[in-house]
Amino acid sequence: MSGPPLELTPTPEPSSLGTESPAPSEIRKFLTSRGSSAISDRAFRWIMLLCALSIFAIVALIAVELVKSSQLTISKFGLSFFFKSAWDPVNANFGALPFIFGTLTSSFLALLLAVPLAIGVAIFLTEMCPKILRGPLSFLTELLAAIPSVVYGFWAIFVLVPILRERVNPLLIKALGWTGFFSGPNFGIGLLAAGVILAIMILPIISSLTREVMTAVPHTQREAVLALGATRWEMIRMGVLRNARIGIVGSVILGLGRALGETMAVTMVIGNSPVIGKNLLGLGYSMASVIANEFSEASDDMYRSALIEIGLALFLVTIVVNGLARLLVWAVTRGAPPRVT
Amino acid sequence: MKKSTLLTAALVLCAASAGFAQKLNGAGATFPYPIYSKWFSEYSTAHSGVQINYQPIGSGGGIRQVTSGTVDFGASDGPMSDEQLKASKVKILHIPTVLGAVVPIYNLPGVSAELKFSPDVLADIYLGKIGNWNDARIAKDNPGVNLPNSDIVVVHRSDGSGTTYIFTDYLSKVSADWKNSVGKNTAVPWPKGIGGKGNEAVAGMVRQMPGAIGYVELIYAMQNKISFGYIRNAAGNWVKGSIDGVTEAAATVKQMPADYRVSITNAPGANAYPISSFTWLLIPDPAANGANGKIIKDFLTWMLDQGQSETSALYYAPLPKSVAEKVRTTVGQLK
Lengths: 341, 335
Prior knowledge:
The complex is a heterodimer. By secondary structure, chain A is an all-alpha fold.
């Protein structure tokens, strides 16, 4: 920079680069005014580290408290607590299996319904939506995310459940009854109703995150694929979805997290009956639901301890499911940079 | 301008400090919350400077908080067990305040007559032994009613609740089978049925599903104008849930123990409604704080005099005179 200024691009004050000391710039003035940068840098680093560590601290505190408060049942039932299906507050005999089953079944059912729909919504919004529709559609999707779950629950009881009972379930029983997954009695409420309401609740999360990820795919990718003669669907599949897949899996994991922990809406439609069976029209119970249902009136210590251990089970199941999901991401992305096959 | 602000600030400070000096905290049952909050607010209006806060966190929480001394009083729909009383650091008195009851509701399209249920039939429906509405035993209780051939859909509460406690306490008394295989508690291992969270969900499910039977609080059914069935009481009469019937159940209970921890389900009175229960305030005696203890004592006296007369406006059954007099003596002995 000390060389002679280029003639073609004259700078406003070429002489200031010369020997006489120039007036310091605003940025330089600020940088020199605020003391030693070594100290502030170190302080900044420590503060950031503290923020990061606080996550560990919160998780550890929750885990410790859950284990501590469920000592009674942990010492009485041991590991068998997680594999037993009894739930008898009268005789203090507890097991978490039906609740784990209910949580996992309703959540996976929700994913099964929500993921294709959410990705479809995202594709439409990013790739083929007319400009007039894009604003209202994204606004409505995000509105769905802002509705409180108790409202979803009431809507489910008074609108969704009657529709399922009178229209959908009879068809399912007729067409797919032979599989054993759809058999009577047809209450309307049950695992399927819980899955459907959860699907509606996680749809906005998955679709808006997927949309963000897909928008982030560079346009050159799309143009390149189109230039090679791809149809629009081929362009979306190869140029967009392939590049966005990690982000999409991430959004699905976030949706799953919400489904696993959802309490109120599920409680209102799952039937609250601790049974295990492959009939999706049958009743079920989820871990979050039983805690919400029974904690406030559980006056007996063993009973309370069992409910807290259910909380511990939910904690563990979430960790395991998240771990598996990470494994899935790793398996998907192992194949190095995205490529077209 | 400035002066008035200062004045207001001073006034607020005064009020705050006065409130702080006589602020009582209670926690517990949700069932009596409407009447309690009415009582506490009226009592505060009549006694300026006294403020009673009540948190309806559930009976379980109420018992835990009063035994650990974090609140001035607790409240519960079910009496504390002997072990709980023994484990408590302070002596806890049970003071009955109002009564509640549970009524059976059902949804049978085409049946306009009000159905009658014998105790054993009700128990066997909930046990799953009677699965169809045209069962001979239901027909026997309801002569002349054309009962449909449809499955009985059993609905019960999914949340732990005093309502379930009263209902299962009653079924345990009238059915040995129920007592042995299910038992009584705020939540029980139901042999069959769908769980609904709260009275509103149970009522909603029963209303939606033809052939459903459920149970809700009498107050809830009355406030929402839900029709409900008759039960045969211990005296052999068919009775329908009513405020008078509930109060009579409390008046005719065989022997009232000194600590009021008594179940009044299946009471012997001729018109007694059999699925009834007290709800209690749990009062530490002596109080941890003498001044607060005095207020509680004064409040309880007020509750017996004026409070009882306001119960029926909210559909709660008041204490019978005999019990109220007995409670007055107990309150008088509070330290």
